[in-house]
Amino acid sequence: MLQETLNPGTSEVSEKTLARATRKTGRKPSSIVFDVVLHFILIIGAIFMAAPFIWMLITSLESTSQAFSVPPTWIPNPFLWGNYPQSLNALPFNLAYMNSIIVAVSVTFFQLITCSMAGYAFARIEFPGRNIIFIAFLATMMIPFQLTIIPIFLTMKELNLLDTLLSLILPPALFSALGVFMMRQFILGIPIELEEAAIVDGANRWKIFWQVILPLLKAPLAAWGIFAFLGQWNDFLRPLIMLNSPENFTVPLMLNQFRGQYATEWTLVMAGSVIAVVPVLIVYILAQRHIIRGIAMTGLKA
User: Fold this and answer.
1) pTM of the entire structure?
2) C-alpha dist (Å) from residue 190 to 71, 76, 193, 199, 211
3) For position 158, what pLDDT does the model report?
4) Which of 215, 104, 222 is nearest to 169 (CA)?
5) What CA dihedral angle connects 163, 255, 92 and 235, to 10 degrees?
């Protein structure tokens, strides 16, 4: 009321602006206000979500004294770009990068194959106990990884695969319950008439899967591909248990080598972390549209 008294034209201008926006968009004022508030909340949430990455990027360009200064230094002065080559040269990061790429790409490739095939079997092929097996399959997601790491370790030991990249590739490459669930849900939403038409043309199950179903799975395959790649790229516990030789270390293990007995070079850790994030960020940006579409369409039909 006081504001309207001091500025009598403000209320009229706001009402005219809102009315003009309503006529232009054909939407109710309450809907426009809701969208504005919603976008404001989402922007604030996005800032909070990006804050750790921004802090990591800032710290990677600072000196050690600036990184621990109180109050915090938000703008490095000067920008220490040399932290990045120093981080790369301090440890064999190129070898760790290659190891992580081999593990992440291999596991992702095999999971896309096994998950899509198992998802098609659970969605379309009738066999005794299919639903019970699928429920039991999903129940494995409730078992913590920490409980399975010991039998996996013993199995890799019996196969003489400890301290090799195969010990990181073989166990997760066999299957993923969540990936199978995503593929099954998406396949259930594909019209079965497409398969019936292929059967009329004389196609068998393999031909239907490879030529009809698989080309339609681009969106969920892209979504699960980035999830699988990200999970393997950031995995720390499994390589920590399976690997001993520094030449087999992955990026998370190599970053852990910056931690000293009495001190830790946090600026170099942050610089190495920024470098480690780059491949995942590139993959996500390139596949972002397919990822969103794959997640959105996974549960359309059950």
Assistant:
1) 0.77
2) 57, 53, 9, 15, 14
3) 92
4) 104
5) 40
